Amino acid sequence: MPKIEIPLKDFLPLAKMDSTENLEALLESLKAELDGLYEKTVKIELNDTNRPDLWTAEGIARGLRCWNTGAEPHLNCMSAPAVHIDVHEDLKEIRPYIAAFTCEGWTVDDDGLESLITAQEKIASSFGKERKTAAIGFYPLDGISFPVSYSVTSPETAFQPLGEEVEMTLTEILQKTEAGVKYAGLVRDFKKYPILRDSSGKILSFPPVLNSHTTGRVVSGDSRLFCEVTGTDWHTVNLTATILACNLEDRGAVINPVEIRYTDRKATVTPVIYRDTLTASLNEISKLVGTSAMELNLEALLSKMDYREIEVTGDSVTAVMPPYRRDGIHPRDLIEDVVIAIGLNNIEPILPSEYTVGSSAPVENLARSVKSLLVGAGCEEIMRPVLTSFEKISTLTRTPVPPIRISNPMTAEYGVVSSTLLPALLEVESSSGHAAFPHRLFTVGEVLCRTNSALCRTVVNLAVSTGDADFGAVHSILGIICHLRGLELSLKAIDDSRFIPGRSASIMINGKDVGILGEFHPGVLEAWGITVPVAGFELSLESLKV
């Protein structure tokens, strides 16, 4: 879980607190824990990975202020954008998205600069997937002339990177600087690299790696800033910019929007002021809280959680979440915030009226038996999330049937429900080239499948893969399982876009088609960055029942 350390002389004024008294209890409202309280600093551990706004000093302070005094306005005073950024179409396959804003009216001090750097690294490393989906850059605004150009350039383009004494080409930056070596994998496979320039041609940065030392170095005393966020995920980029804008506004800065002009899509104005609206039934609130919702002051409770435009009408309550939050996707999310605002310790517990004896589900017993056999065959288990991306299933793995999309995903990285487990194995294999071969991996998990009636069903599948091995190697593992469980195994030739033609087959157990087995196509392996042959199979776990 994310941890942040904040100087008390910066944190207490931001939170409008006189002391750290009751801080530990107050942090519970933010799903946070006091990890350490020292003479000059406080260390806080966050337990909610859906709230990147809380991974900063300003976010924690804002949450405590709202808890004590109610909701605050955010980004309500922004004027129309006076400047813009032009986005080049060649970035589409490299790093296509950018959000930005300028700010003035707050003078950067040492604590504020440290907070900017901490927020930049914490959000980009965790929420931004190590700068892949979002990376952040801050710049002194006075040295920048608009419009800014976000485009591509040759790897031999040179500028003086931040913290270095001489100019380097982009290739040298990736090879010789600490940040370049760390983040080289995000860009080095492309023929051209992203670059950010102002209208005079001055290089601002090499996203997502390093700023320019001459135009991208913020120091104490700067009072006008330019902030940009680039990345591969539209949602992550824009939410990150909104969070940072709210943070700087909390410090007294005036936020000015920037228009982003794309060649292949409608222009957007950032930071985006999100207005996610949630509605919950009063009956549902009463049921979950254990107290009649009519007896609760829902307006006051939701205001403590920084909700706006709260309306209690008829049998429901509707409220708008603050613009820096996009974690509300269900009425239960609003109800959860009501419960947090009441205080978990203030809810009277009710003992169960009935007592039952628990036991594991039959499918879990089956999974445990099969896992034991696979471990005995030299396989190692991996565990991956049920949610994944469309790209991993359809684009990289070439799965014939598209997965079920989520209508309102938090991020494209988790935008679909897994319809197959094989991409999860390939993803692990793609990052395991350093480990001794052969690799024998397996996973057991739920997948969501389409049926002939256009409905969906959830089934539990088993998938196995072998790295640096062929059809026969993975077939032998399946044969061991079936033999030890007393099942009749046969194969039936079938073509599948994921596998090499002539090297794939349907799995038949006791005469029923229950899965597929084959050697992965070289195109699939190349897409995943795998350099050795890989074979695998996937079948319904229920088919192994005896």
Textual characterization of the structure:
The radius of gyration is 27 Å and the shape is globular. The two termini are 42 Å apart. Strands 4, 5, 6, 7, 10, 11, 12, 13, 14 and 15 form a 10-stranded mixed beta sheet that branches. Strands 19-23-24-28-27-26-25 form a 7-stranded mixed beta sheet, sandwiched between helices. Strands 1-3-2 form a 3-stranded antiparallel beta sheet. It has 546 residues and is an alpha+beta fold. 28% of the residues lie in helices and 29% in strands. A hairpin with an 8-residue loop joins strand 8 and strand 9 (168-169). The chain contains 15 helices and 28 strands. The model has no long low-confidence stretch (mean pLDDT 91). The chain has 4 domains: 3-69, Phenylalanyl-tRNA Synthetase, Chain B, domain 1; 83-270, 3-Layer(bba) Sandwich (Phenylalanyl-tRNA Synthetase, Chain B, domain 3), CATH 3.50.40; 277-345, Phenylalanyl-tRNA Synthetase, Chain B, domain 1, CATH 3.30.56; 362-544, 2-Layer Sandwich (BirA Bifunctional Protein, domain 2).
Please give the number of β-strands: 28
| Share of β-strand residues | 25-35%
Shape: globular
Give the class-level CATH name of the largest domain. Alpha Beta
Count of discrete structural domains: 4
- Fourth-tier CATH superfamily name of the largest domain: Phenylalanyl-trna Synthetase, Chain B, domain 3
CATH fold call of the largest domain: Phenylalanyl-tRNA Synthetase, Chain B, domain 3
Class per helix and strand makeup: alpha+beta
CATH architecture of the largest domain: 3-Layer(bba) Sandwich
Distance between the ends: 42 Å
Number of helices: 15
Share of helix, binned: 25-40%
Q: Estimate the mean pLDDT confidence.
A: 91
Radius of gyration from the CA trace? 27 Å
What does the largest sheet look like? 10 strands, mixed
Low-confidence stretches: none
